[in-house]
Amino acid sequence: MTMKPKEIDKLKDYKYGFTTDIENIKSPKGLNEETIRYISKIKNEPNWMLNWRLKAFNRLKSLKEPNWQKPKYPKINYQELYYYSAPKSFKDKPKSIDDVDPKLIETYKKLGIPLEEQKRLSGVAVDAVFDSVSVATTFKGELEKLGIVFCSISEAIQKHPELVKKYLGTVIPITDHYFATLNSAVFTDGSFVYIPPNVKCPMELSTYFRINASDTGQFERTLIIADKGSYVSYLEGCTAPMRDENQLHAANVELIALDDAEIKYSTVQNWYPGDEKGVGGIYNFVTKRGACRGKNSKISWTQVETGSAITWKYPSCILQGDNSVGEFYSIAITNNHQKADTGTKMIHLGKNTKSKIISKGISAGKADNTYRGLVDISKRAKNSRNYTQCDSLLMGNKCGAHTIPYIKNKNSSSTIEHEATTSKINEEQLYYCNQRGMDQEEAVSLIVNGFCKEVLQQLPMEFAVEAQKLVSISLEGSVG
Amino acid sequence: MLKLKELKASIGEKSIIKGLNLEINPGEVHAIMGPNGSGKSTLANVLSGKDGYTVSGSLKFEDENLQEISIEERARKGIFLAFQYPLEIPGVNTSNFLKTSLNSIRKANGKKELDTISLIKLIKEKASELNIDEKFLSRQLNVGFSGGEKKKNEILQMKLLEPKLSILDETDSGLDIDALRIVADGVNSFKNKNNSFLIITHYQRLLDYIKPDFIHVLSDGKIVKTGCSDLAKELEKTGYKNFN
How does residue A76 score in pLDDT terms, banded at 50, 70 and 90? Predict the structure, then answer.
């Protein structure tokens, strides 16, 4: 592979920006019924699944893209996109990791995700999704012994149709909103997790999403079910090559926690953010929602958002069960021309429900960062509590930070607390660090990681160090 | 080690240091005393390279022109400033800060960076010499520290980083007598024939514990008198009014 000097230069900034040269099978271009039938057929889906997709597509025809968000984007021509792209070698699905195209194994190795049996990350099971298909899932056997299902959603549709039918679309209905409905019609792959009653999943489950093909949208669908009394911690990572065009990633993630169950969902999102002039980058328009359906259940979202040209997502919790708990910990970093409009929704329906929101927004360059969040405590949700803390850190004077909280409290026994701060990176702190021998970048990295600490602490150990580095790298060259 | 000739410094239109001459040799302890507003802290800031001052005259550290050197490079060459008001950095634990600082300096001087275990051992050793509870290592840097704890933390950093020139900017202010003694002991135990100190203070009492070789009186941006220890006693009696 030869690269022009300019490309090499770029790679220094975004080390995941390479492209894997691999032959693809693609669906016909455009968004229509034929494309949906093509996706369903190539995945050998049962009829009910195809019908579900078509129902969503019909609904989509009457929907419009939402436009209330702060970052605006040029019109997306949905007829010019490919909705399915998979490495050609996947026509006959590889039976084991040995059958997987070495180029793919190499790609994940470069991304720091070894898939081979002997080199796997210890204590972490990985599902690797490349464009529209799952490449491999590690540790499957070990997990099966405990009755845990961890596989691609495509495989779950084949092997566990009863679970998929029962839960798919119950947190994000196919009628939800434009991008969620679009996903329901054309979703390709993603992960499926089922934890049986009273099982504590012994390792981190993780999915690594990679967009490779050009002109392709990625429509990931993930469904996680924690049955009564179970526990799971799940982490997703994302990267994409550097391209001059904007690419769409419209994922749907549904979490369901039954009685006394807990789901911890962490995201380290590092999609290609576009170059310093704002050309290219991923549109990360994602719907993530969790239902605390059972009593005493808990869902905790942690996100570190450093990539994408535009990030637009609100991982939410519907606190249905009495005494259920929802948490949202977020770091959103925007640099250069990146834009983020992110936050959460905490919908309190059950009694004694609790939610906690900790959001850290960091803005540098000419970037714009909005926290938007809803706390809605219903009449029935007696004695409920919410605590929200939103801190914004500005670097330089060309960036922006905004905090937009929506608060609805419909009963008098519940309390909502909201704290928000906006600060500029403190010159005196930088001077202090410099006087102790640190250069500007070391100092910024130290101070910013301190600012984000409450959120970084929530990440699983294996990823916290990576995330800290990512935070520093994302802001390189933004002060000075 | 340090040579200042006709040093002048101003902020905007306001001139603060107005032609200061000072020479500090290895192994010497100099004290600068003076009333509020005489330019003491400005001198410390200018030596460390802090932004915002217009500086002229000659500033040489080991024959290098300091004016061409950034704040962090000065620190790496061995200039240390114990801050009058040490900064709080929320979320950053003290040991991590010390590690980053020490390793930046070691790296710049071609030394191997220390791993966390040897570093913690080293810090604990220095901390116990200063009577600092090791619990403070896991606390956020200076957050919720008392005035005395902050100042002790500065002295700990000094002992850890082993600078050639240590500038103490009113380290004694706000300290009770016990803390004052600990700070002074810290300085005395670190002092040797190769390193030097510039101690900036308003009061004489610190100089009961740290014996300076020279005392300079700074008034209106100039050194108006230089003497030995006795000068501090005299100032304590008569105040600074004779020098205004």
Answer: confident
Hey, are the CB atoms on B161 and A433 less than 8 Å from each other? no
pLDDT over 90 percentage in chain B = 75
- DSSP helix/strand/coil, A327: strand
First and final CA of chain A: distance in angstroms?
35
In the beta sheet, which residues pair with residue A345? A374
Tell me the chain B residues in contact with residue A437 when contact means C-beta distances shorter than 8 Å.
72, 75-76, 101-102, 104-105, 108, 161
* Rounded distance between C-alpha atoms, residue A362 and residue A339, angstroms: 11
Q: Give me the residue from B49, B108, B140 closest to A437, CB to CB.
A: B108
Phi, then psi, of B189 in degrees rounded to 5: -75, -20
d(CA A176, CA A147): 32
Task: Render the burial of A110-139: b for 16+ CB within 10 Å, e for the rest.
Answer: ebebebeeeebbeebbbbbbbbbbbbbbbb
Chain B, nearest residue to A446 by Cα: B92
Domains of chain B: 2-243 (3.40.50.300)
The mean predicted confidence, pLDDT, of chain A is 86
The 10s digit of each residue's pLDDT in B156-180 is 999 999 999 999 999 988 888 888 9
Supply the pLDDT for residue B196: 97
Q: How confident is the model at residue B129 (pLDDT cuts 50, 70, 90)?
A: confident
Inform me whether the C-beta atom of residue A11 falls under 8 Å from chain B C-beta atoms: no
pLDDT digits (tens, 9 = 90+) for A323-370: 999 999 999 988 888 898 999 999 999 999 999 999 999 998 888 899
What ranges do the domains of chain A cover?
19-313
String of b and e for A353-378 (b: at least 16 CB within 10 Å)? bbbbbbbbbbbbbbbbbbbbbbbbbb
Q: Does A398 touch chain B (CB under 8 A)?
A: no
- Distance CA(A353)–CA(A298), nearest Å, equals 10
- A153-172: average pLDDT: 95
Q: Which tens digit of pLDDT belongs to each residue from A433-460?
A: 999 999 988 999 899 989 998 898 888 8
Q: Which has more confidence, A245 or B24?
A: B24
Tokens in use for A353? Answer: 């429900």
Share of chain A above pLDDT 90, in %: 49
Residue A397's contacts (CB-CB under 8 Å, 6 or more residues apart) are none
Rounded CA-CA distance A451/A349 in Å is 33
Report the distance separating Cα B47 and Cα B64, nearest Å: 13
Task: Supply A455's token pair.
Answer: 């959120």
Helices (H), B109-174: 116-129, 147-161
What is the full DSSP assignment across A114-151?
A: --SGGGPPTTEEEEEEETTEEEEESSHHHHHHTT-EEE
Nearest to A338 by CA among A405, A302, A284, A392: A284
Interface pTM (ipTM) of the complex? Answer: 0.96
A246, two tokens: 């904007």
Beta carbons of A41 and A49 less than 8 angstroms apart: no
Interface test with A, best of B46, B72, B83, B98 (most A CBs within 10 A): B72
